[in-house]
Design a protein that fits this description.
The structure is a single chain. Among the domains are: 76 residues, Alpha Horseshoe (Serine Threonine Protein Phosphatase 5, Tetratricopeptide repeat), CATH 1.25.40; 84 residues, Serine Threonine Protein Phosphatase 5, Tetratricopeptide repeat; 111 residues, Serine Threonine Protein Phosphatase 5, Tetratricopeptide repeat (Alpha Horseshoe). It is built from 26 helices and no strands. α2 crosses α3 and α17 packs antiparallel against α18. The chain is elongated, with a radius of gyration of 39 Å.
């Protein structure tokens, strides 16, 4: 019975407090602030979060009492701690920006902004919470939480949150990458004129990421962003002009856009400008300008630009010929796995140009190009294995690499292969095949080289029976190069 009586008394008091707060709200709404405060104060003292919020408002605005920011802050905090969403929303912006006597406090802002967003769907508070977690302001960066709050704000129509959410879905930051979802949000703000989302929409159309691939739409959206100064869009639109995709092909317009983007610090165009000047595509051919742009791209690690700069230094085109500089840039590109640069660097080591002659280094760098099918690299590897320069002498390896090049019609390899097969000992000797390769080489060579090949061919023929010679000559007639 005592428990029941106590519960009845508690409910009566709660009901009375609620009635008092409601009367206070009615008085507040008719601008009778003194009467409102008479209702709010006791309810606030008893812990009613709604009353605490209104009491804070009264002190903050000076309604029915003298303005007192300290008292306002005290009651806003109590109300927020009690779960009042309006108080959390007020404190969210106050802590975020710093208002009146409240100092900027991003950690405190994150807490109350999150409460206002989750508890009451407060749109701007949700955006601010997303921003704080997105960029790690006052809290540890948490992309998943950022995306959660951005979504609340985006669905509430906040354009900044829609912008951010489109980016997060596009790059898979805090959410599973979803190009369709990214396109949905990016389109909303792109249509409102925001340049970066316009660029992302252009990209989506360009590559068919979340939107059906459409060159014309890609060009349209890139143009919108480019016209507002977005350098990435300038680069992308320039490339469409260079290829004639979605727009009439116009290499001069492409170069113009690339230069505008470069002026804004867009590094992706450096290599494109290098090629434009090197090829004379959309700009007057200039190896000097090509070298300038290739160097800018090369310094940022773009391997093809490093290779091209090495080539220009080796050739002395647009720059003073400098084999050491050529070797430097070839090395940078070769270390990134660029086959052409590896072969060029190997060539310098083999010849001792710009670097100390080093057959071992030459063999090292020729290996990958040879495996990728470079006929010249295969020939040189065969030579290095045959001569024992930079590698342990290995006739079998020499035959292997010579044959790869010889099969594709390389006369030097055919000549060398013929010699090795004729000179081999025991079961490795194959005079018939040696004659075939020597015969093929002699047929293609000229001058002194042909005479040497013919002498080799005749020497081998002297070791053959009539039947073997007929077979060897038939093999030479039937031979066709591998494609």
């Amino acid at each position: 019975m005592r428990v029941c009586a106590t519960l009845i008394l508690f409910l009566a008091l709660v009901g009375s407090a609620l009635a008092d707060v409601e009367q206070g709200v009615q008085a507040w709404e008719r601008a009778d602030y003194r009467a409102a405060l008479e209702q709010f104060k006791p309810a606030a003292e008893q812990g009613d979060a709604r009353a605490q919020f209104y009491l804070a408002e009264a002190y903050n605005l000076g309604r029915g009492t003298v303005q007192d920011y300290a008292e306002a802050l005290k009651w806003y905090r109590k109300a927020a701690d009690g779960g009042n969403v309006e108080a959390q929303d007020k404190l969210c912006t106050a802590y975020f920006f710093g208002e009146n006597i409240i100092r900027k406090d991003e950690a405190a802002a994150a807490n109350v902004c999150a409460g206002a967003a989750r508890g009451g769907g407060k749109v701007y508070a949700a955006f601010l919470a997303g921003y704080l977690y997105d960029f790690g302001k006052g809290v540890e960066a948490d992309p998943a939480r950022a995306a959660e709050f951005y979504k609340i704000a985006a669905e509430g129509g906040n354009a900044d949150a829609q912008d951010a959410l489109g980016r997060m879905y596009f790059f898979g930051q805090g959410v599973a990458q979803d190009y369709a979802e990214a396109a949905k949000w990016n389109l909303k703000v792109a249509e409102a004129g925001r340049p970066y989302p316009q660029y992302l929409v252009g990209y989506a159309y360009d590559y068919g990421r979340g939107l059906d691939q459409n060159d014309e739409e890609a060009a349209k959206w890139y143009r919108k962003a480019a016209d507002q100064g977005d350098a990435r869009a300038m680069s992308a639109l320039g490339y469409l002009y260079s290829q004639g995709r979605g727009v009439a092909k116009d290499e001069a317009e492409a170069v113009k856009l690339y230069l505008q983007a470069a002026d804004k610090g867009e590094t992706s165009v450096y290599a494109l400008l290098g090629w434009a000047y090197y090829q004379g595509a959309g700009a007057q051919k200039s190896d000097a300008d090509a070298a300038k742009w290739f160097e800018k791209a090369g310094e940022l690690g773009e391997a093809n630009s490093q290779y091209m700069l090495g080539f220009l230094y080796e050739d002395g085109s647009g720059v003073k010929q400098d084999y050491a500089e050529a070797a430097k840039w070839y090395t940078k590109a070769a270390e990134q796995g660029l086959i052409g640069a590896q072969e060029a660097l190997a060539r310098l080591y083999f010849a001792g140009q710009g670097v100390e002659q080093d057959y071992a280094a030459a063999a090292k760098w020729y290996k990958a190009p040879a495996e990728e099918g470079s006929t010249y690299a295969q020939y040189i590897l065969g030579y290095l294995y045959e001569s024992g320069k930079g590698l342990p002498p290995d006739p079998a390896e020499a035959v292997k690499w010579y044959k790869k090049a010889a099969d594709k019609g390389d006369v030097r390899s055919q000549m060398a292969l013929g010699f090795l097969l004729a000179d081999a000992k025991g079961d490795n000797q194959d005079l018939v095949t040696a004659h075939m390769w020597s015969n093929l080489a002699a047929a293609q060579m000229s001058g002194e080289e042909r005479k040497t090949a013919e002498q080799q061919r005749e020497y081998i023929a002297s070791k053959l029976t009539s039947e073997q010679l007929v077979k060897a000559q038939q093999m030479a007639r039937d031979w066709k190069p591998n494609q």
